[in-house]
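Reviewers of the previous submission asked for a worked example of the structure-prediction workflow described in the proposal, so we include one complete record here. The input consisted solely of the amino acid sequence. No template or homolog information was supplied to the procedure at any stage.
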Amino acid sequence: MADDSYTLQAKVVEALPNAMFRVFLEEQNKEVIVRTAGKLRKPRLRILLGDRVDVAFSPYDADLANGRIINRLE
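From that input alone, the workflow returned the following structure tokens.
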């Protein structure tokens, strides 16, 4: 899922167990549950409520149900 995924910006609304988060997608005007990508989990970067993040989705996921946080925006 490297080049064929697409990204959207989102805002973290709620922290859930197992490195999962509920985020609000501004462009889609919808809340989804996403997980943290391994690249962010390894250096243990903190993601807090209100952080803006980049979320990657598979092109096969039409309803945007499963995404990965790939970057935390400053």
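The two ends are 24 Å apart (CA to CA). We consider this example representative of the routine output the project will generate in years two and three.
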